Amino acid sequence: MRYLMFVCTDAEPDQDQTDWPDIEAWVADNDARGRRLDGHELAATSAATTVRVRDGELLLCDGPFAETKEVIVGYDILDCADLDEAIEVARTHPMARAGRIELRPFAAPTDV
């Protein structure tokens, strides 16, 4: 089952930095196990553009639409047997302690 893993900052990171995981080791391990299909860090929110169309009019906004301290800073696409395995992969990501991780399964393809 494939999951999109949003890697986010958080206003309240874990203060205990004992045994902080190494991101390069996390990537190498999950790549080697075939659980991480793709992933990348995102540019700063200052480089973001929000696009909306309302009443046929194109509305552009610099930066993310939401006014929040927590932002998506990266993503990974995971291929795991089930949600439990995806949670274990996310639990070991450094940003699970420094920020937060959101797992979302890809929707099943619809019959067209």
Automatic annotation (TrEMBL):
Residues 15-105 form the YCII-related domain. Gene3D superfamilies: Dimeric alpha+beta barrel. It comes from the Bacteria. InterPro entries: Dimeric_a/b-barrel (IPR011008), YCII (IPR005545). Belongs to the YciI family. PANTHER family: BLL7171 PROTEIN (PTHR35174:SF3), BLL7171 PROTEIN-RELATED (PTHR35174). This is Transcription initiation protein.
